[in-house]
Each structure stands twice: as C-alpha cells, then as structure tokens.
Amino acid sequence: MKRYEGTQKGYRQLLPGPVFGTLIALGGAILVILLILGFNAPDPAKTMGVFFLGPWSSPWFLGNTLDHLGLLLTASLGTAIAFRGGCFNLGGEGQIYLGGLAASVVLLSGEGFPGWGALGLAGLMALAMGGALGALAGFLKKGFGAHELISSFLLTQALTPVGDYLIAGPLRDSRGNLVAMAPIPEPRLLLRLLPPSSLSISFIFAVFLVMAGHLFIHRTIWGYRFTIAGSAPGFARYGGIEPEACWVPAMSAAGALGGLTGFFAVAGTYGRCHLGFPGGLGWSSIAVALIARNRPLALIPTALVYGALKAGSDAALLATGLTFETAAFIQAAVLLLATVHVTAPLVKRRTSV
C-alpha cells in the first residue's frame, strides 16, 4: 500500500498536521495578546515587556513559572490520556482539589510516619481519590451510557462544596485569617529546587510522567490498542479490540493524574491546602491538551508557552495596572484558539534527476 503523501500527486505537506496546527494556535494567541495589550493597556510598551519578560526576569519568577509548568504538565497529561482513550474528562478541577485535600489530611496526621513515608502515602491517597472519581465516570459511561463529559463534571461539582466545607470548617487552621488548613510541616514538604521560589521536585516528576506517557502511547502494543480504540472504535472492533474496555482505564488515569497534581500543589507549591487552590488549573489543562493535539511530548512546549502567558498576565497585573478583565480575556482567547484545527499547506515535491 502506498503511503498517503497529500491531496495532489507530486505535493507534500510542509509540516506534520499536528505540529503545524500547534504552531498556528500559539502564534495566533500571541498575536491576539499583542493586539489586546496594544489597545487596552495603560502603557502598552511597558506592559508588553513585563508580560513577555516578567516570568523569566529573576530566579524567583523563573522558579514559579517552571513550578506552574510542572502542575500543568501533570494535569494536561491526564486530560490527553482521556482523549486518547475516547473520553473527555471535564472533572479535572475537582479531582485536583479533592486529591490535594486528601493528601493534606494524610500529611497533617500520622505522626508515626517519617517525612518520606508520609509523602508517599499522601501521594497514593491523592492518586486514589482522583482515580476513583475518574473511574466512576468511566463506569457510568460503560455500564449505563452516561456521557463522561457530564458525569465527570457533575461528580466533582457535587463534591467540591464538601471540600470547601471541610477546609472552611472542621479542618480550618484557626490561628490565621486565611481560609486554609494548617501548614504542612517542613519535613513533609517536597524538596525545593530553587528557593525562595515555589519550584519543587514535582517538576522533575512531571517531566518523567510525560516521557512515560509518550513511551506508553507510541512504543507499546497496549498504547497502540488504547489509541486505536479511542480514535477509531469501528476499526478497533474490526481488529478484535473492544473500545469500551478502554473507557474506565482512560478516565481512571486522567483522574489519578488530576489527584496527583493536587498533591504536587499542596506539598510543593503552596505548602498547605487552602480554599479553591486549583485556581482554574483543571480548565487550563484542557486547553494545553487541545493545543498539543493530545501528544505527550508536545505538552512540554505547549504548557511552557501557556504557563508563561498566564504568569505574564499576572506579572502585568501587579506591575502595570492591567485590569483583571483584560487578563481574563487574554486567557479566554488562548482557550478559544486551542480548538482551531489547521491543515499544513502543500508544497511541490522535489524530484531527483
């Protein structure tokens, strides 16, 4: 069978479709940002400088940007795996929140455990909490035909107020004004890599997980079956693969990685579990996965750019008086562009004489 080279004989694509689409989405996002800042910022030149250079201007800003990148990578990998398995996990925000809450309860109790033991147990608890929420949504889809997009969202939306109640009520640290649980003792915090920034060893774990996800999807027979079942269920059935068998594992993995993201956030980034700590991280992970076309290795540059854009908007808010509405509109524009699919143009193939 001849390999498909393009829509016209003698032509080929300039770049692979997913790569070209990602570049177009990111380039369009940057162009929109320049236009918005140019027309709405009090001092456009200064605001643009802070927006694009602020996240890298000092070790503190650099560390915080990379730390946010690690959280985005872990959460977006879960979203991408769900997409690969033919599912859409819309409960990432709640899975992060509840996973971090469960991890914090472990880290603040169990005095008999050493620091590393408590961290390991807290990580497992976060994985179990997020994985259970994801698995339940996958089970409802497989067993009862409930759409996982709705069920995953409603499950976490129903349980998030319970988490709010626990953090603001029985588990709240009454010694301060912040609506949060008690600070996690230092021996039970993840190792900081670039103090005083929030960058911790969770960043290394996140990169390792992305590499492992790439190897699983592109280098194993199980990953091949998983991808085919999600992208072409009819072809999968023809080849003896049951697509429905991938739904629960896909949603379980997505939820577990969401819970792990919550563990990284409370034990590394913040050092405690406070009210609403995900701050939209679950929604951002959907944008990153869509821009990267659910390719694990593409998550790294995509999350880097997306995280830098968010960090830049936060820096511009503090330094130049950029309004919250403008910053929110910028992030919404990036999310909208994440849904754009562009096909690379065809170029004339070179022929040897």
Quaternary status: single chain
Radius of gyration: 22 Å
| Model regions low in confidence, pLDDT < 50 over at least 5 residues | 1-6
How many individual helices?
13
Number of strands: 2
Proper CATH architecture: Orthogonal Bundle
Q: How many structurally independent domains?
A: 1
Helix content: 55-70%
Main sheet makeup? 2 strands, antiparallel
Walkthrough of the structure:
This protein is an all-alpha fold and 353 residues long. The chain has a single domain, classed as Orthogonal Bundle (ABC transporter involved in vitamin B12 uptake, BtuC), CATH 1.10.3470. It has 13 helices and 2 strands, in the order E-H-H-H-H-H-H-H-H-H-H-H-H-H-E. Helix 1 runs antiparallel to helix 2 and helix 4 packs antiparallel against helix 5. The N terminus is likely disordered.
Give the secondary structure arrangement, pairings included.
Blueprint lengths: L10 E3 L3 H24 L3 H10 L5 H26 L7 H16 L7 H30 L3 H21 L33 H18 L1 H11 L1 H6 L8 H24 L10 H11 L4 H25 L3 H14 L8 E3 L5
Antiparallel strand pairs: 1-2
Spell out the key features of this protein.
353 residues; mainly alpha; two-stranded antiparallel sheet; 2 strands; globular
